[in-house]
Amino acid sequence: MLAAITTMSAFAQNDKMNPIPTPKQPGAIELGTGKLPESTADEAWHSQYGSVFARNVSIATLTPFLPAKSKATGAAVIIAPGGGFRTLSMQNEGWDVAKALNKKGVAAFVLKYRLNPTPADMAGFEASMKQMFSGAARRAPATPQDPALALAPQVADAAAAFALVRSRAKEWNIDPTKVGMIGFSAGAMLTLQTTLYGKDVNPAFIGDIYGPLNAVKVPANAPPLFIALASDDPFFANAGFGLIESWKAAKRPVEFHLFEQGGHGFGMYPKETTSTGWFENFASWLRMHGYIKK
């Protein structure tokens, strides 16, 4: 109980958004998908919850995290952090996930995809985020069935990431047929849209971590799908499980973990809930499918 109280207190103390200098991103590779024409503010970073976030991203990049060659399994994962397409949880849902995958022998690539523009000043940004996450916004949105309607730039970024990883597969000690994708919240939406509509993407497997579970039309060659969600998620826990049912109806592999507690955005945070175990569940699932060595 003391550990739980301490963790909750730490989160409460660190919930304020504080601007920080843009951190060094060694190895980040521009994906060449262009700059969003509607972007007017420079890319900016801030800290919150003991983690770091990026916003006003107008140029997409991919940052490789490679395991030791002696441990490499040949599998790779493109990671799409979440943030409502207005910000990116680069550390909790990006870099920390990549480092954990490296320990399992899996190459990881953090995708900093292009975002909807937000006010340049922190006060304006905070107000825009509060509005987005207001009571009305807590109803699960419908996932666009056509990426051209909403997510075309981000799907283009993800497709470019797959193309880059496969083109340098030999250099990075990767099997080009073993490249998957995992996304968190908005990143989960992007992962699904990329899988369903990205041109020549064909991920080997995908992970949907606390994303919406709306029903979709599943292609016959849909990849194995891993899903993790907390039953107390305020955004996506109360809209049914159509995505799981869609995958099952198409007779495609799907695994679903519904945690009693965890809320939204738990990622790699050390919370005192069983949702913290999602990563080891995911790693076990990858092992079951042959992407991690036994």
In short:
This protein has 294 residues and is α/β, with parallel strands linked by helices. 30% of the residues lie in helices and 21% in strands.
Give the secondary structure arrangement, pairings included.
Layout: H1 2-13, E1 18-20, E2 29-35, E3 44-48, E4 51-55, E5 59-65, E6 76-80, E7 87-88, H2 91-103, E8 107-112, H3 122-132, H4 147-150, H5 152-167, E9 179-184, H6 186-197, E10 206-209, E11 225-230, H7 242-249, E12 254-259, H8 278-288
Parallel strand pairs: 6-8, 6-9, 9-10, 10-11, 11-12
Antiparallel strand pairs: 1-3, 2-5, 3-4, 4-7, 5-8
Helix pairs in contact: 5-6
Structural commentary:
The chain has 294 residues and is α/β, with parallel strands linked by helices. The protein has one domain: Rossmann fold. Helices cover 30% and strands 21% of the residues. The chain has an eight-stranded mixed sheet with strand order 2-5-8-6-9-10-11-12, sandwiched between helices. Strand 9, helix 6 (186-197) and strand 10 form a beta-alpha-beta unit. Helix 5 packs across helix 6 (186-197). It is globular and about 50 Å long. The two termini are 35 Å apart. Mean pLDDT is 90; it is low at 1-12 and 136-145.
